[in-house]
Amino acid sequence: MAAHFPYSRFSLDAAQRSWNGSALAYRRSHIVITGNNHTVQRVVLSMTDVPTSTGSPGQTRIMTTKVDGHVDDIVRQFTTWLEEKGIVVYATVDHAKDMRDRGVEPPVTAWTVVFGNPKLGATMLAVNPGIVVDIPLRVGFYQEDETSTMIVRRLMTGLLADHGKEEQLVAPGNTADALVSGWVDSIAG
Prior knowledge:
The protein is α+β, with helices and mostly antiparallel strands. The chain contains 5 helices and 8 strands. The longest helix has 23 residues, at 166-188.
C-alpha cells in the first residue's frame, strides 16, 4: 500500500521533554519524508537525546552545547587548552576543507578534534581491551549560525558502559567527562 504525500520533501523537527526520575531528559526528533508523484518513497526519522547527567545504559550519552564564537576560533581555543593541560591532540579534522578538496560543497563548517591521555587510556585498556574502539576521545564542533558554534560530545561514561565491567571504568570515565565538561562550561558562560 503506497502512502500519498503532496510534497517532494517535507521536514519536521520536534522536541520532547520528560522526567526520567532523576533528571530532565530531552529528545529531539527530525523526520524527513521524500517522494514524487504524491507517493512517499522514503521516511527518515532521527532522534537525538539531549543532555541528562549520567551515561548509564539507556540514558543520554550525547551532550550538545551552544557557545558564542566562530567555530574556527572555538576549535583553536579547545586544542590550545588541551595542549596546555598536557593532553595529546592526535588529529584536528576540518570536514569542510576535506569536502571542498574533493569537490563537495559542505553543508556546514564542521571540525572533529581527536585527543586523549595515554595514561588514562592504558588504565581503560587494562580493564577491557575492547575499549580501543572508543578511545581516543572525540569532540565535534560546527557553525550553528554567524555568531555561534555547537559543541557535540559523547559522554565517556556512556561509552564505557557499553563495554561491561562498568564499575572499574567509572573513575577514568568520570575523569575524562569532567575535564571536557569543565572547558565547555568555562566558555559557555
